[in-house]
Write a structure and sequence with these properties.
By secondary structure, this protein is α/β, with parallel strands linked by helices. The chain has a single domain, classed as Alpha carbonic anhydrase (Carbonic Anhydrase II), CATH 3.10.200. It has two helices and five strands; from the N terminus they run E-E-H-E-E-E-H. Strands 1, 2, 3, 4 and 5 form a five-stranded mixed sheet that branches. The longest helix is centred in the C-terminal third of the chain and has 11 residues. The protein is globular and about 35 Å long. The chain starts with 12 loop residues before the first strand and ends in a 9-residue tail after the last helix. Keywords: Lyase, Metal-binding, Zinc.
């Protein structure tokens, strides 16, 4: 599930795109995925997930923009990374518009990643 909420709502999936500049300052673009139609871009990623103890590489090109909504309206706040060491000073950009993923896609991701979300922080 999502680690951020929009208007009090948690989503089935939240993707983080983490960026760092030369000074080590961090920014995260966050995209929420809601239950709906199958997402073709997400399918490419899911199909490339390696089996346990296996390495895999993308054979085709992948457009990261295909995972982003068409509009870039966002909420902005200062926070931290959501994984250890949970470093502070991260600029967050949570996109207001969502993408979709199918129930099957959500199940496949849950199978691989489990429920790895950090609890909501005050």
């Amino acid at each position: 599930p999502s680690e951020n909420q929009i208007k009090g709502r948690q989503y089935p999936l939240e993707a983080h795109f983490v960026h760092a500049n030369e000074d080590g300052e961090l920014a995260v673009i966050s995209v929420m995925f809601d239950a709906g139609d199958q997402n073709a871009a997400l399918s490419k990623l899911i199909n490339a997930i390696p089996q346990e103890n296996q390495t895999t590489f993308f054979k085709d090109t992948f457009e990261i923009n295909d995972l982003l909504p068409k509009t870039a309206n966002y909420y902005r706040f200062n926070g931290s990374l959501t994984t250890p060491p949970c470093s502070e000073g991260v600029r967050w950009f949570v996109l207001k518009d969502t993408q979709t993923l199918s129930k099957d896609q959500a199940a496949k991701l849950m199978e691989v990643m489990g429920q790895n979300n950090r609890p909501l922080q005050p």
